Amino acid sequence: MQLFHMNFDPLSRFVRLVLNEMGLAYELIDEKPHLRREDFLNLNPAGEVPVLLIDNIFPLVTPYSIIEYLEEGVVSAQQSLYPPNAMGRAEVRRLLGWFNQKFYHEVSQPFIFEMAQKRFLPPELGGGTPDMAILRAARANIGYHLEYIGWLSSRRAWLGGEVLSYADFVAAAHISVLDYFGEVPWENVPQAKLWYARMKSRPAMRSIFQDRVVGMAAASHYGDPDF
Amino acid sequence: MQLFHMNFDPLSRFVRLVLNEMGLAYELIDEKPHLRREDFLNLNPAGEVPVLLIDNIFPLVTPYSIIEYLEEGVVSAQQSLYPPNAMGRAEVRRLLGWFNQKFYHEVSQPFIFEMAQKRFLPPELGGGTPDMAILRAARANIGYHLEYIGWLSSRRAWLGGEVLSYADFVAAAHISVLDYFGEVPWENVPQAKLWYARMKSRPAMRSIFQDRVVGMAAASHYGDPDF
């Protein structure tokens, strides 16, 4: 399997974490979607990462399509990251939507674009200096999302229910990107911090803690489970 | 089952079409998400439609969570709207992402907000007259999406492959909303028009052709399969 991804894209990071946790081997291929490389557009006409290429020929597109394909035929029941009952799975899928759509549009996407991508883009593709009004709005949104994570983790063993699931990895994927920039107000929500400390100590998380943005150091606690 | 929906929200309309096609009975409940009704926020803290309430107690949130729940335990193999093989299902799930995320953000959401919702909102929630620059961009995007529908339907029996699937209903849900406003340039893409004529003649589509926007008539061909 080959994973076409982009560093600090939370959707790509989510799939990496899932493949790591399942113990599946894969090759990681850096893709810059804004270059609109023709071979990549043949894999995904939407021109977006992540894409998981199976057997060099079949591209799985969107995190949703990727995880359902893995669940349907690639992994064993022990490796599954869904709860065993239908209502539990429905709750995990709701949270996948919460993070990959709501959190993504309200926090991750504006934040990453302003902080990490804009500096490397030409002006005609929206390059330039960060827009402070957009960053302020994204920072306000992080606060309420972090409270929601704290609320969930104070009522359940894990974010999606009683077992570790995709809900934890999707939340950790988005949160870890913001945490690189030191933008998660951990001290305000101790329950969320306790949940993330447990996630950070998982081996599946190790490789993402080595990602770096050129010219921008990680927050000092970025990879440290005791933060 | 109770479906909390909003007229002309394409995500809600997608779920209605699916339930109609499966022949499942449900009660339709009008919800205005911007009112942030407390009972509705208890069902879905994201405050978004559609929500499918099962047995008066268990809310299914996001179209993704709804259809996977139906597939896992509610409908028979004959009623399933997925192809029978894993790769076929992956392709349909890719197209669900294409329409419910890409098409939604590039076309449906800006269009519906500017044309139908803005007139009924107070200024502090973004109400007012349509922004012509946003409408121009959405209109340009309709063109390339319609070509993609034509491209798919010229190579396959249905949009997602050889069987009628969620891919057809999700595309029809979004397209039918734009078609109400007369905003689909059908004459430019005959293959897309042929596909939509087949969809329009399905009984599952009938109820949505009765939806009306107050003070705005439907395009003359809106519900007519011979358009």
How would you describe this structure to a colleague?
Two copies of one chain form a homodimer. The first copy, chain A, is an alpha+beta fold and 227 residues long. Chain A is built from seven helices and four strands; from the N terminus they run βαβαββααααα. Chain A has a four-stranded mixed sheet with strand order 2-1-3-4. In chain A, α1 packs across α6 (166-180), α4 runs antiparallel to α5 and α4 (86-117) packs parallel to α6. Chain A is globular and about 50 Å long. Chain A binds chain B through residues 45-46, 58, 60-62, 64-65, 68-69, 72-73, 86-87, 89-90, 93-94, 96-98, 101-102, 148, and chain B through 45-46, 58, 60-62, 64-65, 68-69, 72-73, 86-87, 89-90, 93-94, 96-98, 101-102, 148.
Number of strands of chain A: 4
Rounded to an integer in angstroms, the radius of gyration calculated over CA atoms of chain A is 17 Å
Query: What would the average pLDDT of chain A be, to the nearest integer?
Result: 95
Order of helices and strands of chain A: EHEHEEHHHHH
Count of runs of 4 or more consecutive helical residues of chain A? 7
Uncertain regions of chain A: pLDDT < 50 for 5+ in a row? none
